[in-house]
Amino acid sequence: MEETKKVILITGTEDTRISLHKQIQQFIYPLGVVESYASDEGLPSMVSGDLIVLSTQLLMDEVVHVLDESIPLVIARRMINYDFIDKILVLPKGKNVLLVNDVQETTIETIEYLKRLGIDHLNYYPYYPGGEVNLECTIAITPGEAHLVPTHIKEVIDIGPRLIDMTSIMEIFRKLNILDERADALSEKYIKKIIQMAKKLAQYSSEKTALNQQLMMVINNMNDAIIVADEKGTIQLMNDNMETLLKIPKKRVLQQNIRYYLQDQALQDFIFGECQNRSRILSFRQQDFVVERFWMDESNLLVVTFKNPHETLEIERKLKRELINKGYVAKYHFNNIIGESKRIQEAKAIAKKLAPVDYTILIEGESGTGKELFASAIHNSSKRKEGPFLGVNFSALSEELVESELFGYEEGAFTGAKKGGKIGLFEQANGGTIFLDEIGDISHKIQTRLLRVLQEKELMRVGGSRNIPIDVRIIAATNKNLLEMIETGEFREDLYHRLKSLYLHLPPLRTRKEDLQLLLSYFLKQEGKGKIKIQQEVVQQLTEYNWYGNVRELRNIINYMVAVCDDNLIQLKDLPDKHFFQKAKPHNNINLNVDEDITKLENYGDIREFLKIMEKIEDAGGSGDNIGRGRLVSILKDEGFPLTEQKVRYRLDILEELGYINKGKGRRGSKITLRGKEILTKIISLG
Ligand SMILES: Nc1ncnc2c1ncn2[C@@H]1O[C@H](COP(=O)(O)OP(=O)(O)OP(=O)(O)O)[C@@H](O)[C@H]1O
């Protein structure tokens, strides 16, 4: 039997040593063994064996003193590790990537190797310590040198140390005189590897094809014409509707420049311009479209869609009919606001005081709590009651529509603008009140315009050049937390303060369940024309719900039960199933983590004491006063919470620290904050 051969492997780093050791060992076993050294771990003074393999030519100078000239030497050619190749293949075409390796030569070598393999869909930029970094790259690929990647790059694809390529493996066999014996093993292993890789590629490409086909089906079935181009403007994709619009077969258009096919200056200015708006009404080939364009950040692709303006306008018109001009007259008066609970009575009392003062009002409250109802009642008891009352709900309208509806436009302001222009809602509401619902949904641009109207009491129509004086009272409403939106930069602080000259908070239904019975009878009478009766068990059941959709939800559920009940009697079987009821919307109000807050309060003492203190402060605020410490102590005592003044002070400090109240200076007393109100409501509603 032949003697076992010994291969000495010398590499630069430990990682490379480990992976090449394993690789050579796999190929030569059982005819030979490997002994390996890495220069960064330290080399022996001399090596002996049947063959020396150097992982790179670059090591030559460093190791020459340990080499024995009588031992044959192989300087390995290296290839990238195929096992990780799919990580590179999935990167989008044209992506800028930094290729990071230890020195210039190996970096360039790796790039060339990848390109030779046909992995040439990426723009490779070499980087090695001391070299220049291309700052446009957000991804780095490295063969086992992840620690060298510049720190600003967040995504690193480590394809592992490069392996010894097949020609060098053959050379090793030849020099060890084991080529004949190992040839089969070599070709078998080599072919296996190739097959594995081919399989991986085939699977990857068939998944990709299937996915592409599905996506194509989706976009072909859309009503819009869609075209997608890369950052150079080369068209990558389009759907059937786009083909019909361009009247040129897809095959001819793909891979051509988008500017050539969308030859219209205004269109190109919008598509490639800096304009903040995502969509605009534009003409193309004698037709009007709502053109939308956006960049997909990840893949650097530009997506342009052309929507049928008739459909879009029809939807918007419908919305408009529903949402704008809810009526030029305010339908409700204070006596239409049902409820005898302390909370609703207080809200009504405040609203009545605010009505005659001709300032802007901000109404905050969850959806369905009656914000519009209150706005209407306020208008009707204000000195503007003879003037118009107009409502606008911003939640479902596009920015362009809001702008032109609110401020009006001059003839020729944009494509599709009516002859003679159009007067906006502000002008129409002159002498009256405008109710701006869901104010938290308006864009920054509209916020700025609105602020100007509030400050200057005049406006300029879209495309206009003269200022038109206006005399309108604004009542704005929101179910969002505007203070939080100010913090995140979504809402202008100056506008917030302008709107909040006067302020009204409407309590959620679940905090005034004592009104439920009254509201129930009221709606039953309205809807059931007085003929419908309801079983007491049903009423009992209804009081147990949380009513996240508030009074609107209650009204809808009554309408439903009236419609399904038999013999004019609403019974338990007529209750809608639980999915009908609205779930809590955490984003509806302040984003509070109630559990966390409860735990905090519990850590400081008896939570009931804290709640009682907040409740009393809120009560006092409702009637326009701030409550001082002395009064608080005596009220608390009356209600069964005998706390010393010192204890009350301590609890007030804690509540202020948690942001639930603001302690006034001197004798001014404390005031509950919005956050405090919310947490109080939430804890009470949780029981
Ligand atoms: N206290 C109340 N008495 C009688 N009806 C009420 C009361 N509160 C609300 N409603 C009725 O509930 C429905 C919803 O009220 P409204 O539209 O005013 O709520 P909103 O707070 O403006 O809601 P959103 O924020 O969703 O616009 C309306 O039909 C309104 O008449």
UniProtKB/TrEMBL annotation:
Residues 211-257 form the PAS domain. SMART domains: AAA, PAS. Coiled coil: none annotated. InterPro entries: AAA+_ATPase, AAA_lid_NorR, P-loop_NTPase, PAS, PAS-like_dom_sf, PAS_fold, RNase_R_HTH_12, Sigma_54_int. Keywords: ATP-binding, Nucleotide-binding. Residues 337-563 form the Sigma-54 factor interaction domain. This is Transcriptional regulator with PAS, ATPase and Fis domain.
